[in-house]
Design goal:
alpha/beta; 372 residues; Ribosomal Protein S5, domain 2; 2-enoyl-CoA Hydratase, Chain A, domain 1; COA_CT_N; transferase activity
Length: 372
Amino acid sequence: MQLITGTYSSGTRIDRDVHIGVVGSGDLEVLLTSPSEPGTTTVRVRTSVDGFDITWRRVLDRFFESNDIACDVEINDFGATPGMVSVRLSQAFDLASHEDASSAADPTRGSDGMPFTELTARQRAAAILDPGTWREILGPSDHVESSHLEPQGIVPAADDGAVIARGTIDGTPAAVVALEGRFQGGGIGEVSGAKIAAVLERALVDAEAGQPVKVVLLLETGGIRLQEANLGLLAIAEIHAGIVALQRHTPVTAVIAGMVGCFGGMGIAAGLCDHIVMTRAGRLSLNGPEVIETEAGIEEFNSSDRGTVWAVTGGEHRVNTGRADDLVADTADAVRDAVIACGTDPATVHRADKVDDLLAELADTTTERTAR
């Protein structure tokens, strides 16, 4: 990882924070904030690819020669091309100079008609909430990011890949958590895990005060972030405890829509939820296909056989076998309608209470396999 900095003389000061992009393969995030020095644009780049100082400076010089806005610019890059860098900077500066501040701040801008699975975590969270009610908590401009990644040579994300928002869903107060699967595979670390656990704890406090909040988890995650293994384990344990405690007062809904799926400890978290909504593209399991193949051998499970992988862990199979509740189309409207249909009344019997039934079913499966 390499740090590149620069300053440029500028004129018009921006009056809003702007964030765009994702720290994912071949992409980058750009964050614009008010200038720390009047009349100056200060640029700070963290890139995963070393040795391209000259290329970066040429791209930045060319861009700021024709864009006269004073601000602090933070770029977190994960191998983007010079063309992509220019595109993201242009998008960010267009939003910074947009006349309608509320429109510029709307995360769903430009996402109409896109499949739900192609939206960023921020767009997915906003699409679930009622229009105009979106309020992000600990967003990118708050710079609550992991302190463990940069020392390991990994470019961090300004929100650590976890988007937290409050608003309403069909008029009901709601809290939405969305994990960005394109950042470190949606892995849970100290910061992202703490953000999720805090949402559940805050919702519990509100519920105990007679003000229940609908909680929705949009899960695209491979489980624990290996670079923060023990801290990730602790965070996921807190998430599990938070879900179970909250269920006495209000249901918790998990949505698993995208190609990353939901695995590991967060697969357990999904299994604790009262409602699980999936698309056909979504996958849900404890161990991922590659892990099963590594441990049991390719004869047991071929992780490169996409048909087998989705037949075993995909949304259609999970709904058919009762491991998930609703199979929906890959659109924001379909997912939102399913979330609304989950209701607000706490369940009388939770998924985790059915452990004896699940163990009996597992025993029957084992017996059938042995008999063959």
